[in-house]
């Protein structure tokens, strides 16, 4: 067991929107340490969303992220030789992390040609309550609901 909890690292706000959530998103989007490329992809995707929907791109992105963020998840818990899927509430920092990761994962799996188009498409779909990332959240909630009977095993 650790002696002391590690210090929480705080991220700086991004240069364009001055929002720390955008920086967290870009940090997850980044590959091979190419942060400026990740920022370019994100900003162009938000611009594409604005052109397609004629609304504020950042607001649509935040709405999409809120549609993806899960409230409950299941965790494996061993009790007496059997493993149970126990539904647990997700703490706030993990909620946003899961939402960000799912959005990026399912954007990368889309069929469009460039990552900008894929991300823009996933943002628009998630803001409408559709898309693969929203389906993942619904599946997670459904699994937690199905295993409600084991909620007394919470630790």
Topology of this structure?
Elements: H1 20-29, H2 35-53, H3 57-68, E1 72-79, E2 82-89, H4 92-108, H5 115-127, H6 132-146
Antiparallel strand pairs: 1-2
In short:
The chain is mostly helical and 155 residues long. The protein has a single domain (20-153), classed as Ribosomal protein S7/S5 (Ribosomal Protein S7, Orthogonal Bundle). The chain is 55% helix and 10% strand.
Main traits of this protein?
155 residues, mainly alpha, Ribosomal Protein S7, two-stranded antiparallel ribbon, 2 strands, 55% helix, 10% strand, globular
Description:
α2 packs across α5 (115-127). The protein has a single domain (20-153), classed as Ribosomal protein S7/S5 (Ribosomal Protein S7, Orthogonal Bundle), CATH 1.10.455.10. The protein is mainly alpha-helical and 155 residues long. It has helices at residues 20-29, 35-53, 57-68, 92-108, 115-127, 132-146; strands at residues 72-79, 82-89. A hairpin with a 2-residue loop joins β1 (72-79) and β2.
Estimate the strand proportion. Answer: 5-15%
Helix fraction bin: 55-70%
State the CATH superfamily name.
Ribosomal protein S7/S5
Order of helices and strands: HHHEEHHH
Kindly give the count of domains. 1
């Amino acid at each position: 067991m650790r002696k002391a909890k590690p210090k929480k690292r705080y991220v700086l706000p991004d240069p364009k929107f001055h929002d720390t959530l955008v920086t967290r998103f870009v940090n997850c989007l980044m590959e091979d340490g190419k942060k400026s490329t990740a920022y370019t992809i994100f900003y162009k995707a938000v611009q594409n969303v604005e052109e397609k929907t004629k609304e504020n791109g950042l607001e649509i992105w935040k709405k999409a992220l809120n549609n993806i963020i899960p409230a409950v998840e299941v965790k494996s818990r061993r009790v007496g030789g059997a493993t149970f899927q126990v539904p647990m509430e997700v703490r706030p920092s993990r909620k946003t992390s899961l939402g960000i990761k799912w959005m990026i994962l399912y954007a990368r799996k889309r069929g469009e040609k460039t990552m900008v188009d894929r991300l823009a498409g996933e943002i628009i779909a998630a803001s409408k309550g559709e898309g693969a990332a929203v389906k993942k959240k619904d599946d997670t909630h459904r699994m937690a609901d199905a295993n409600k009977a084991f909620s007394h095993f919470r630790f």
